[in-house]
Fold this protein.
Amino acid sequence: MHDSFRFDIDIWGGFMSGCPDRALDTHIYQAWKTPSSRISFYHDACSWKQAIAGMEAAFGPVIVGEWSLATDNCAMFLNGFNDNVPGYPMLPCKYVPCPDPYMGTDQPGTPVDPNRPYLGPYGTGVSGPSWGLCPTDRDWLKEHTGSANGTDWIHAPPEAPPDRDGTDEVMTNLARKKINAFAGVGHGM
């Protein structure tokens, strides 16, 4: 069963105790957290090892069914067609030329018209294409000397100049920390 995004021992500890063939499926995302430094994201990723071990002891088998490297929810249609959770994204998103749709260009509204603004129907936020550009994750800036906490990212423009883009490094480190946290505890990912 899925934890309904309530990974809490007070909720699940002892639930269905004694029942065979049960497991708790959790999906671990950081995209809806308050914008923060790379160090905060790293610490959050690492903290899951202890949390999963604790839930295994209190409930039983835990499976990390989904996880992601997203640190914001700028990805197009992440919360539904032309919609976004109210108040999100919390920071400006990077926009790139929209790719062709994976289901082919015979789909309604494709290819995206570079001469048209954001089109309805409108939801509670902005997560769709506009003027041929589609929202995507923000870039992470390389650290300045003496800025080891990563706070430069919070005040940075969404797209880093090529010589300042540290996104590959941050995503590689975040992936390693998450995989390390999920491996060796729980019953799979």
Remarks:
- Strands lie at 24-28, 62-67, 94-97, 133-136.
- DSSP finds three helices and four strands in the chain.
- The chain has two domains: 9-71+168-182, 73-136.
